[in-house]
């Protein structure tokens, strides 16, 4: 099965109208990132500062992982043969902690990420050279640990991602 570019998925939102009636809501398109030969993606939804019926989110203005008490929802892709490509991750999302294990592609964030591979495959590398190859149907929970993505394969890897920001330290 072939999937569209991450920015071409259709987002359907069911929520309350201004009068409180349940309806399908018209929303803007996703925030898109495209770094040729490295990664591309689209974040379709984001919640900032806590979840509630009154604060259920909106399309984000930019591609960034969830902040404290927030969440994001999107589709990402690693192009075929994008393994080991150097990229300054700080230019993509300045909230990421980069450069672990002497590898500029190794990064971490203050989020818990839920990911589902829907096509292709990708290698997930942890510090110390620990590697798992993820394939369609694999579910990943990423608990804020340093990691790097590598796709040395002949097919793009497309996956769904939800990021949930850790609670802010002030609230603990």
UniProtKB/TrEMBL annotation:
Superkingdom of the organism of origin: Bacteria
Listed InterPro entries: Cupin_2, OryJ/VirC-like, RmlC-like_jellyroll, RmlC_Cupin_sf
Domain Cupin type-2: from-to ranges: 96-162
Pfam family of the protein (one): Cupin_2
UniProt-listed PANTHER family: CUPIN TYPE-2 DOMAIN-CONTAINING PROTEIN (PTHR36156:SF2), SLR2101 PROTEIN (PTHR36156)
Protein name (Swiss-Prot/TrEMBL): Cupin domain-containing protein
Lineage of origin: Bacteria, Bacillati, Actinomycetota, Actinomycetes, Micrococcales
